[in-house]
Amino acid sequence: MLDSKIPPGRLEEKWTDYKGHCKLVNPSNKRKLDIIVIGTGLAGASAAASLAELGYQVKAFCFQDSARRAHSIAAQGGINAAKNYQNDGDSIFRLFYDTIKGGDYRSRESNVHRLAEVSGNIIDQCVAQGVPFAREYGGLLSNRSFGGVQVQRTFYAAGQTGQQLLIGAYQALERQVALGNITMYSRHEMLEIVKIDGKARGIIARNLITGELERYFGHAVLICSGGYGNVFYLSTNAMGSNATAAWKAHKQGAYFGNPCFTQIHPTCIPVSGEHQSKLTLMSESLRNDGRIWVPKKKNDTRRANEIPEDERDYYLERRYPAFGNLVPRDVASRAAKERCDEGYGVGTSKQAVYLDFAAAVMRYGHIECNKHGIANPSAEQQRAYGLEVIKEKYGNLFDMYEKITGENPYEVPMRIYPAVHYTMGGLWVDYELQTTVPGLYALGEANFSDHGANRLGASALMQGLADGYFVIPYTIGNYLANEIRTAPIPTDHPAFVEAEQKVADRLNRLMNIKGTQTVESMHKRLGKIMWNKCGMARNAAGLKEAIQEIRALREEFWRDIRIPGSIKGVNNELDKAGRVADFLELGELMCIDALDRNESCGGHFREEYQTEEGEALRDDENYMFVSAWEYAGDGKWNLHKEELNYEVVKPTQRTYK
Hints:
Elements: H1 14-21, H2 27-30, E1 34-38, H3 42-54, E2 57-61, E3 79-80, H4 92-102, H5 109-128, E4 154-155, H6 161-179, E5 182-185, E6 188-196, E7 199-207, E8 213-217, E9 220-223, H7 244-251, E10 256-257, E11 262-268, E12 291-295, E13 312-313, H8 315-319, H9 329-341, E14 353-356, H10 358-371, H11 379-405, E15 414-423, E16 426-427, E17 440-442, H12 460-480, H13 494-511, H14 519-534, H15 540-560, H16 572-596, H17 620-623, E18 625-633, E19 636-643
Helix pairs in contact: 3-6, 3-12, 4-5, 5-12, 10-11, 14-15, 14-16, 15-16
């Protein structure tokens, strides 16, 4: 039986009561306890800094050359918090409700309410660290809208919010490094969890500079290594982002929750050719002011500026008048795919739609002209002033778009198309963020807990920092209070020796295949299978085919892969090979999970289960649960179900019309 450890009592009192009754570790005992943190993005850096500040001895690991290079820097648009600075009706309950609804009623109420509760504290923490959030004229922090909500609750720092938040967490991390409470291991990759008497007691890491395997003990291990979107090859993730840490934890007994729940982001620069190794995200914040449209005429070859207003289909505004261009990501993505599939796509590939700022430029220009006392401005004056506002709000995003596409988005509409972005699935965790392996925790995107079947925009940063700054410092004490008598275990313990040998054997096996194919080519082939048959839309026949194709590809990988160089020293191809090998196993589980869930919900769209209007059709009677998969060895898994009981929110058919 899965024990989610949800505290008793009323929903809004659970977290407060939990904090008042959880076990504590006194400061002198904290100094005797070692905690390993894998990953130094927002979840990892904030957790490491917070735990070290409390007195724990922390070992932090990242495969990058600096903790500041974690992929959290790529988050652009903002971070949600229920501050209600706009006085527009926001509240903790409304943030909680929007998140539950946005996730299509497939997330755990208690975790989501806690997230909403601590959201305001995150903003206060980051302001105190000097994060340069945008501000209104009067000095209050500014907010903007994101998809799936009807209030303005997203705090932002131009189009580089993730980078600024990570710098704040990073300086907190580095302060503890300087004080000696954190030992930082950069260019190290975790390749195995070490378990002793059923508990996580350490890791085996590979030094990516020397190639040596190293052993590290910890009373607890935190997986903060992000999501697995790169299983699709083309995604908005950095090429180095991977699932290896989470996957090794899974194969050591940590259940994997909802692996098929993948988020497709609607606002990305379209694929331009086979040469691409990743895709570029254009922030969802652009949907605040940009209007999305396609020509009303199929296969229209005219340029955007040549198409008159009455021949444009603003299809999101037409289909979802209440939310318009700010519908949730899964809804906007499917709508774009539907228009393109029907022949209304734009650009040379016809796999794109327009994101147009012309109306926003003129609207802002009118306001600015009023500010400057220009009573009857010309269109040129309005446009000039409006462009200045747009540049101030989104300038770095517009510059990035122009550098990549060669088109000036101030002059012509952007072209966008959906792409793989975030993964809602991840290691199954209970209310305390502990996996099914005692002493092993998962934070941020590495766990499944807060977003259900679809994540609302600007909630990834919120969850990562909530888990690291405000949740794990309390919940880990409930476990470590019983570990204060456990002395550090020497790394010559047989469990460490066995784990290291297991890693060494795997690396040697990879190096000794000496086949003919590159890791990159294999990864690309896996990505095409996943995108075509387990991407924006899935069906039973395609998923069954994908499972067989992935199994065949995995067999081919272990028979015909070629890795140059040696195990010793720097070998990026070997690093990548290990990660792709894990993706080849995870991809199969994703398809198995998608095939098992005979419903459509959020980012999981089974073509057999949709309404007459083409919307996702849930089956609450049969699928109101979290799918928690247990690895059973040799490519087999056992399914466990965590039933979702909604005490406050009553699930209904989701509508944004």
